[in-house]
């Protein structure tokens, strides 16, 4: 709550911070946008440049692979020795060995024409025999491993349709990737075999800087050459182009740090300005806080406490500016004067309030008293001594309750007993023309309410609703309600004609002068008492029931305890 008060739109702290931010934030947003736009332009230019470079080199690779692919197709179409290898060797052993020698010599001779290739091979799946050239730089162990890898690769693809051999494809052998192309005629496979890293040798002449990477990757972006950090791609600009001849791509990775290092020096100055603004803001705020905000905050804290009724609070002396020192002295003097004045006014108000409550409490309708005596007199004429005793007992209890002193609160049990005495007197007086019912939970009997709160509204029903023409019933229901704070809900309802529209309109207007001469002085007194005791915590609701009759709802804060002590407590709270 304190933090919300401090950041109120009307506070000096809020206005200072908001003014500074309204100046700094647009400037920072402009600088950020300018920086973002500059980086975007540089990235796009670098990406386009490297995209063209990758496409150029990939075209060169594709042309070399296409030449080898033409050679393999020509060999399949015109080499008669391949037909011999398509038959089992034991059909004509001499012809088979001669064909092997011819093919071996051809591969050894032609490999020098296609220097991009490591191996050219012919494989007879019928005879399970592989013929390949033997590079002079390869050791016997390497040659053996390559031959085993070729046989394994060809066996894996044995039985595949011709469409599976249309393009060059990557093959992983002992963590080393090779690019392979196969042409098939019958059961004979003719192909080329080259290391993926060998295709990247000419690319080492390109200027991709030491921080940049260039790598051949599979269709799943798995690197086939080099150690490019493809997984950590957030730090790199990726530019790739796909091969038209094979199932692989050429990928360039350029670090963003390299791309952006050539931005103008002015852009770095913008960063310094943004950083400086963020540094200046807290320094500026600390300065204002020490000179202006802290002295104001001390005064505001004391003012809030004084507003809440704590007149003992004073602004403590601190080393502040002359203006604030004068404000503190004047404020402390004002609080002292207000405290003295409020004590005087309160004492006078307390005396007036006690006198008014006592006057309201002891108001007795003379007609009621005379009617009660008249009823006793009539009963004496008929010598109905039992009813005379009952009537006298109810009247004595009624008068004893009315003449008690210092009754600011009574228990609900006492108020109900007093109301029953009053209603029983009226029931004896009107006989069958008036009946009543009081419904209250016994657990609420010790709840405290102002005296005469229920009896006043019951008396209003007797005065305005009961006639000898038709019987009238009065119902009093008392319940405990409320979710967050418990309230006593007292509902007094009769079956008479109810309130007039004019009376309800006057009550809703709450104009006290409109009720001074009306016939509902008791209701006006009750509302006045509720305001004197509870201020705005109690509610009095007047209405007419849809089925006819007046309905009064009284909502009182639920209280328990000694009536005298609670009365003191409420008086102190009213202060």
SSE arrangement:
Elements: H1 2-6, H2 12-78, H3 81-85, H4 93-110, E1 119-124, E2 129-132, H5 140-156, E3 169-173, E4 176-185, E5 188-195, H6 196-199, E6 213-218, E7 236-242, E8 248-255, H7 256-259, H8 265-307, H9 322-361, H10 366-381, H11 385-402, E9 410-411, H12 412-430, E10 434-440, E11 448-449, H13 453-464, E12 472-481, E13 487-494, H14 501-509, H15 521-534, E14 539-544, E15 550-557, H16 563-574
Parallel strand pairs: 10-12
Antiparallel strand pairs: 1-2, 1-5, 3-4, 4-5, 6-8, 7-8, 9-11, 12-13, 13-15, 14-15
Describe the fold and architecture.
GO terms for molecular function: phosphorelay sensor kinase activity. Residues 290-343 form the HAMP domain. By secondary structure, the chain is an alpha+beta fold. The protein has three domains: 49-263, no CATH class; 264-354, no CATH class; 362-574, Histidine kinase-like ATPase, C-terminal domain (Heat Shock Protein 90, 2-Layer Sandwich), CATH 3.30.565. Helices cover 53% and strands 17% of the residues. It is built from 16 helices and 15 strands. The strands form four sheets. The protein has a five-stranded antiparallel sheet, with helices on both faces. It has a five-stranded mixed sheet with strand order 10-12-13-15-14, covered by helices on one side. Strands 6-8-7 form a three-stranded antiparallel sheet. Helix 2 (12-78) packs antiparallel against helix 8 (265-307), helix 8 (265-307) packs parallel to helix 9 and helix 10 (366-381) runs antiparallel to helix 11. 23% of the residues are buried.
Q: What are the key terms here?
A:
575 residues; Heat Shock Protein 90; 5-stranded antiparallel sheet; alpha+beta; disordered C terminus; 5-stranded mixed sheet; 16 helices; 15 strands
């Amino acid at each position: 709550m304190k933090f919300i008060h401090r950041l109120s739109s009307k506070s000096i702290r809020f206005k200072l911070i908001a003014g500074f931010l309204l100046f700094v934030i647009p400037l920072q947003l402009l600088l950020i946008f300018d920086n973002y736009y500059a980086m975007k332009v540089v990235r796009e230019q670098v990406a386009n440049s490297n995209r063209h470079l990758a496409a150029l080199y990939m075209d060169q690779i594709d042309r070399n692979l296409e030449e080898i692919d033409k050679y393999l197709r020509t060999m399949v179409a015109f080499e008669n020795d391949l037909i011999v290898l398509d038959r089992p060797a034991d059909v004509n052993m001499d012809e088979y060995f001669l064909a092997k020698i011819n093919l071996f010599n051809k591969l050894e001779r032609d490999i020098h024409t296609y220097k991009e290739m490591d191996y050219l091979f012919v494989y007879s799946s019928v005879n399970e025999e592989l013929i390949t050239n033997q590079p002079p730089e390869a050791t016997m162990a390497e040659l053996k491993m390559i031959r085993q890898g070729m046989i394994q690769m060809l066996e894996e693809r044995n039985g595949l349709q011709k469409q599976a051999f249309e393009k060059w494809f990557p093959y992983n052998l002992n963590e080393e990737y090779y690019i392979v192309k196969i042409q098939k005629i019958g059961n004979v496979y003719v192909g080329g075999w080259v290391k993926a890293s060998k295709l990247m040798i000419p690319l080492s002449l390109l200027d991709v800087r030491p921080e940049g990477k260039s790598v051949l990757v599979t269709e799943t972006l798995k690197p086939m050459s080099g150690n490019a950090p493809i997984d950590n791609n957030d730090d790199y600009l990726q530019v790739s182009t796909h091969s038209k001849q094979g199932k692989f791509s050429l990928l360039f990775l350029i670090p963003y740090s390299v791309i952006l290092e050539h931005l103008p020096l002015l852009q770095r100055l913008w960063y310094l300005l943004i950083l400086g603004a963020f540094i200046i803001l807290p320094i500026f705020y600390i300065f204002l806080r020490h000179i202006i905000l802290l002295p104001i905050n001390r005064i505001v804290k004391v003012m809030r406490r004084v507003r809440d009724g704590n007149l003992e609070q004073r602004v403590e002396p601190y080393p502040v500016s002359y203006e604030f020192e004068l404000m503190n002295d004047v404020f402390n003097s004002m609080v002292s004067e207000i405290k003295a004045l409020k004590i005087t006014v309160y004492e006078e108000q307390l005396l007036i309030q006690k006198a008014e409550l006592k006057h309201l409490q002891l108001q007795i309708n003379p007609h009621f008293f005379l009617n009660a005596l008249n009823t006793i007199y009539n009963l004496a004429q008929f010598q109905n001594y039992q009813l005379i005793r009952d009537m006298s007992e109810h009247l004595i209890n009624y008068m004893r309750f009315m003449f008690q002193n210092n009754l600011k609160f009574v228990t609900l049990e006492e108020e109900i007993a007093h109301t029953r005495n009053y209603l029983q007197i009226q029931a004896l007086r009107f006989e069958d023309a008036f009946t009543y019912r009081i419904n209250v939970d016994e657990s609420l009997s010790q709840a405290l309410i102002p005296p005469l709160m229920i009896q006043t509204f019951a008396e209003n029903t007797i005065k305005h609703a009961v006639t000898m023409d038709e019987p009238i019933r009065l119902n009093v229901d008392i319940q405990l309600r409320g979710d967050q704070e418990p309230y006593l809900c007292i509902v007094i309802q009769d079956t008479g004609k109810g309130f007039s529209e004019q009376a309800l309109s006057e009550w809703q207007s709450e104009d006290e002068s409109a009720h001074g001469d009306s016939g509902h002085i008791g209701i006006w007194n009750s509302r006045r008492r509720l305001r004197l005791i509870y201020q705005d915590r109690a509610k009095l609701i007047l209405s007419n029931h849809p089925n006819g009759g007046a309905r009064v709802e009284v909502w009182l804060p639920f209280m328990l305890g000694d009536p005298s002590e609670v009365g003191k407590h409420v008086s102190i709270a009213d202060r």
